[in-house]
Design brief:
Four copies of one chain form a homotetramer.
Chain A: H1 6-22, E1 29-34, E2 39-44, H2 52-66, H3 70-79, H4 81-90, E3 101-105, E4 111-118, H5 122-135, E5 139-141
Antiparallel strand pairs in A: 1-2, 1-4, 3-4, 3-5
Helix pairs in contact in A: 1-5, 3-4
């Protein structure tokens, strides 16, 4: 596992929320996990729903779990629904195959964590995640 | 999160059941949760089935979790079945994407809780939930 | 299973809360289950903690599960801690071996349900449960 | 339930970590939950263990669930071990009866959330939580 610092993770969260406010998103929740899938930094905006913490973390955990971005996972889930139904149980509810989960890569291309954003349409969620990662001078991989 | 009193919650339950009897519904179960998703008041009529407590609570919890009414969630679930299958696990079985879960808003529009009704057709369940909320002088948001 | 009506269950809840206010209890939660262990009526007073719904239901479920009152279960749990530790898992977290769970018997002595009260000291919780059951003209069995 | 804003929650996290660095704590994890027990803001310092997110959240959730601070819960757990063993299952592993979970009260004394800190000795964890809450001009209740 390669290292994502708290300083980087916190910068990603704040940049993602900055983008959310600039683009008039619904109230947003942002979670950043390290490469092991464990939470490093998190913020939920006022009036963002009570399932958003789990969804944001599941978007991030899922992309780490499968090694592909949330948009790619959504496509695979459409093509193989029974497998993805099994995966939700296999993972004990820790994956969400939908856009808004984005892998974080360092300058050498290694996965060092993932971001999950939940609150608005998946495409807008994903744009915030990408903006957050790039704002912290890291590489976003939407898969 | 804003406050729903027990007095208000109990009034919602009783009004919803009054509507159920007026409209010849099957035996009904009504659950009222606060904004954090925790049970405040609950009644299950004689001969209402033993899964109804969980269904009624899941209808209410789901609308709080996602910030949208049960009818809207049912439509989204049809459009994105894999994501909603994942959501049932992500939420540990606490959401039911079907009409009959209704957000409770106060006079300023803030979400202060949710009602879940289960026992008859989803549309009749929803009508009881709305009647209950309005009977307590609060705003029903079917989303 | 013998029958506990919603009318009786609701009367128990209201009488138990009446007793709680008369005896200056901390904010209280009261759950009434039928003989099958399924929720019939429930109220949680303002400012009663968010785990109280589960505790009150577990007090009631546990006495049904073991066929003995909560006070008796507490004594058995002290005498056989390993067995009761196993029981919490066996029951999937549905029992609470502590005073405040009371069996409801009909005039012929048959168990028709149980009450669980949580919020103050176990003895005060139990007094509210007993008062509630007797207020509904049924027999309380503290075990 | 009353409102804790993201702005307040984020200020609590940052102040708690400031205290942790000033007092040479081991790597720390800080979670702030709203009154409903849902995550609002969170940071885990570099090298803080992978179970810390769950522990910090369980410290905070437990004090909300029981309406008493973590230090008080630790004392009760010593006095009633069987009941607290049952509580861990009743709560599905969401409570940690140990110092470091602190209730957040507003100027009128109402519970608006809770902080959980994990990483060093419970007393040092608790001191960071209290410092964080007071740094955000709110009232800490160690219970």
């Amino acid at each position: 596992m390669h290292t994502l610092s708290l300083e980087q993770a916190a910068a990603i969260v704040d940049a993602a929320l900055h983008k959310a406010r600039q683009t008039d998103c619904a109230p947003m929740t942002v979670a950043v996990l390290d490469a092991g899938g464990h939470l490093v930094a998190f913020k939920r905006e006022d009036d963002s729903g009570i399932l958003r913490p789990q969804i944001a973390q599941a978007k991030a955990w899922g992309v780490l779990g499968m090694g592909a971005g949330g948009r790619a996972l959504a496509q695979r889930a459409s093509a193989a629904p029974a497998f993805f139904a099994a995966l939700t149980d296999i993972s004990q509810g820790r994956i969400a195959p939908v856009a808004g989960g984005v892998l974080i890569r360092d300058s050498e291309g290694r996965v060092i964590g993932a971001v999950g954003v939940s609150g608005d349409h998946p495409e807008k969620d994903e744009a915030c995640a990408v903006y957050g990662i790039e704002g912290a001078c890291l590489r976003a991989d939407v898969g």
